[in-house]
Amino acid sequence: MLKYRNIGHDWQFTNAQRALLQKYYDANTLLVDCLNSDCYVSREVRQDIEETLLLPISEIEKRSQ
C-alpha cells in the first residue's frame, strides 16, 4: 500500500542526486541494450546481470563480498 502512495510524491532531489540517478539509469539502460543486442555474453554473465539489474548499489556490494 505504501508503495502506491509514493507514486505521485514530489521527492525534491538535489541536483547531485538527480545526476547520480541519471548515471544509474544510463548504466542500466546500457546493460539492457547489450543483453537485447547480438553481442555475446556468457550465460553466467547474463544471469548475473539479470539478477542484479536495478538493485540498489548497497545490495550489489553485499552480493560481491
What does this structure look like?
The chain has helices at 2-5, 15-36, 43-52, 57-64. The protein is mainly alpha-helical. It has one domain.
Brief descriptors of the model:
mainly alpha; 65 residues
The radius of gyration is 15 Å
Q: Give the H and E element order.
A: HHHH
DSSP summary: helix tally: 4
Class of secondary structure makeup: mainly alpha
Whole-number tally of structural domains: 1
Share in β-strands: under 5%
Q: State the end-to-end CA separation.
A: 33 Å
Based on DSSP secondary structure assignment, what is the total number of beta strands?
Answer: 0
Brief overview:
This protein is an all-alpha fold. 68% of the residues lie in helices and 0% in strands.
Topology:
Elements: H1 2-5, H2 15-36, H3 43-52, H4 57-64
